[in-house]
Amino acid sequence: MTAAEITGNPPGSFAWGVLHDRHPRLIAQVRDGLPYPPEIGRALDELAEEITGEIRPLPGWEEYAGRSWYDVPFLWAESCFYRKLLVAVGYFAPGPWQGVDPFEPVKSAELRTPELADDLAAFATRSDEDALLTASLWGNRADLGFRLSAGQADGDGALLVDQSPLLWSLLTDADTVCVVADNSGRELVPDLLLADHLLVTGRAARILLHVKPCPYYVSDALLTDVVAALRRLSESHDAGPRLERAMRDGRLQVRAHPFSCAPWSYHRMPPDLAADFASATVTIMKGDLNYRRLVGDRRWVPTTPFEEVTAYFPGRVAALRTMKCDVAVGIPADAVARLDASGEQWRSNGAHAVIHVR
Ligand SMILES: O=P(O)(O)OC[C@H]1O[C@](O)(CO)[C@@H](O)[C@@H]1O
């Protein structure tokens, strides 16, 4: 069973809005974030102009060169945009700006927001494991790219599917658990607290935390963001130093596989990454983008079973996802009928979430 891939058309669709509105805004945000020299300013101008027309060739990203950004697979177009943004700010080229995360200013600011301080204060008192799982799930709502168009989204929304009992049943004496992280800051902090809980309680002996090898989709977590989150956590929570010890002794390992920034779904993952997932008792995929890559960025009929579209995945897999784009699977028919009738943009407004397990 399959469905058509999502593209940036038709005009007015969610994907169209990301390409048409969000990407130009992101370029402006990046430009304002750091004191870039004139040549980087010009490269950003060129990118702002390019995204209104045809995709220009970039080594390694030739598939859709010459096509309109709106006519090619949305996942590929978004990923290519982030790649080109990094190229424009000199992220890969030898020189003073090499390796400088263009999203670092917004990520660092988030670590100092009153919202995160409130989260941390709440975590100090709320330690039951369902609350930790819920915090990790809804932390995904706080991603900085999404806020560019959705405004401030906060609090918990409606959980459309909750297979958390099945997830907890898998997390009993697990040897290895893979956590495929999504955003830094307000999402990563509860993810780390959940990882700490799994290790402390013996629910897992080892956690493999997959992060991105380079900046991506604004707030996606890198190793540097893990370290920054641990420092912030250590200011108020003993899980911070505990997790640092777990990193030093190998119980918490961070991975940054190049495929984590690839413009493809996990159907195309390379054998070494598949082996990592296969070796885990369960892989927990965090967030919207990982979900799109897990099930395929397609116009699925929303009642299509999650088990079916993830049957290819090596090993057991769970998804903790707030819904922030048009992809939807595994939603009960009555919920689909009710939400469609409501007229709400329920697939993409970040107010709904799922916990799926296969
Ligand atoms: O941080 P998350 O949960 O992966 O969300 C990122 C999402 O943002 C978007 O870029 C726009 O909502 C989606 O295309 C993407 O899936």
Automatic annotation (TrEMBL):
Cofactor(s) for this UniProt protein: Mn(2+)
Keyword annotations from UniProtKB, A to Z: Hydrolase, Manganese, Metal-binding
Classification via Pfam families: ARMT1-like_dom
InterPro entries: ARMT-1-like_metal-bd_sf, ARMT1, ARMT1-like_metal-bd
Catalytic activity: beta-D-fructose 6-phosphate = dihydroxyacetone + D-glyceraldehyde 3-phosphate; beta-D-fructose 1-phosphate + H2O = D-fructose + phosphate
Residue stretches making up the Damage-control phosphatase ARMT1-like metal-binding domain: 20-334
Record family assignment: Belongs to the damage-control phosphatase family. Sugar phosphate phosphatase III subfamily.
Protein name: Damage-control phosphatase ARMT1 family protein
Native organism: Actinophytocola glycyrrhizae
